[in-house]
Design a protein that fits this description.
By secondary structure, the protein is an all-beta fold. It has no helices and 11 strands. Strands 2, 4, 5, 6, 9, 10 and 11 form a 7-stranded mixed sheet that branches.
Length: 118
């Protein structure tokens, strides 16, 4: 099983980034997908989540509502996080997580760094 994130980098405040997470070694459509971030001096927090293929309900932490959008492409076993109007407080390591529905089975990626700074 593998989750590989990409798309992080440095961006100025107000800019945009699109993160991707590609899964392999498991049946992607049976897993709810989430993005977490771990900012400097902060606890790791759930940023956004999307249900499995059968139920694509999305949820966002209040601080990113209206700015971030999570989506999934099951044909490509990929989950995305579109981030707009980025702020310095969005800086952190962003991790992708897959959780099998009706189960505690879960997998994590290695993370991709996002830095928002002028």
């Amino acid at each position: 099983v593998q989750l590989v994130e990409s798309g992080g980098g440095w961006v100025q405040p107000g800019g945009s980034l699109r993160l991707s997470c590609v899964g392999s070694g498991f049946t992607f459509c049976n897993y709810a997908m989430s993005w977490y971030r771990h900012g400097p001096g902060m606890e790791r927090e759930l940023v956004a989540s999307i249900g499995s293929t059968s139920c694509r309900a999305t949820n966002y932490v209040d601080s990113v509502k209206g700015r971030f959008t999570i989506s999934r492409d099951d044909a490509k076993s990929t989950v995305f996080l579109q981030m707009k109007s980025l702020k310095s407080e969005d800086t952190g390591m962003y991790y992708c997580k897959a959780r099998r529905i009706y189960s505690n089975e879960e997998y994590w990626g290695q993370g991709t760094q996002v830095t928002v700074s002028s």
